[in-house]
Amino acid sequence: MTIITRDVISAADRLIGKAVVTPLLESPVLNERVRGRVLIKPEIFQLVGAFKFRGAYNRLSRLTEAERAHGVVAFSSGNHAQGVALAASMLGMPSLIVMPSDAPQVKVDATRAYGAEVRFYDRARENREAIAQALAEERGAIVVPAFDDPFIIAGQGTVGLEIAQQARLLGAQLDVAMGPVGGGGLMAGTSIALKARHPDIEIFGVEPAAFDDTRRSFEAGKRMAAPAAGRSLCDSLESPMPGELTFPILRENLTGVLTVTDAEVAEAMRYAFNTLKLVVEPGGSVALAALLAGKLQLAGRTAVIILSGGNVDPDLYARVIKGEV
Which of 77, 232, 285, 308 is flagged as catalytic? Predict the structure, then answer.
């Protein structure tokens, strides 16, 4: 299925009155630092504290009554889990989420609070997709992928649709857009919407240096996995490779892929807290990290960056803010 702007607009219609239309924020201090104009899209203010609700609600709202009766199964380290759990609750259907046993407790607790059943797995020894598929078959439920689904991609694309509309109201001509890439759903959908309104915009995905599968895929011209490299501070961006649906969109629409280290991400989280007064999770901070680390020069240009989520473990966050990470 080819995903086009019309699909994103359809998703936006579904989300009216359901999702939060997050604002575009601006910081004179940040502008001065990069010698350009930076518009910040804070999806930390979205329901469940991350953009994932958009795609989850768009996907689940398309299910038939018969499908809703059997519910849904998803696999996620946290934000997609919460998005599916809340969307399922709002639509009156059961949900089961397969989560890694080392997922941040704050995300596990929130997922359960939204009404989902949680089934843990060992990310080192078990296959989450296989577990989810087996549970879905057992229950007659629908598996809801985290990114590789047309309705998920279109739902995440509403971020880009809002950015384009809000930038126009601000009189801003966007030169650059930056956002995180894990499986690629957010930037695939967002790039479709932004390219329709700003054909010449440069769009960059940003990912952890230790999980640079999208960068490697760009260089190879095909989907590639990053070598096993332990863990990243950005737990939400540890997807093994770009999706089958998302990668062709990313390859067509993105200018390039930037990478950031854990140290650069931690510095961005501190900057968001101390200067922007925003709480952003590690994976949600990567675009800001790339900006602050000078991975892209913005002098005289206007950029939009997406802060994709704010669900961070309190203990980890405290250590980051105190400079212990």
Answer: 308
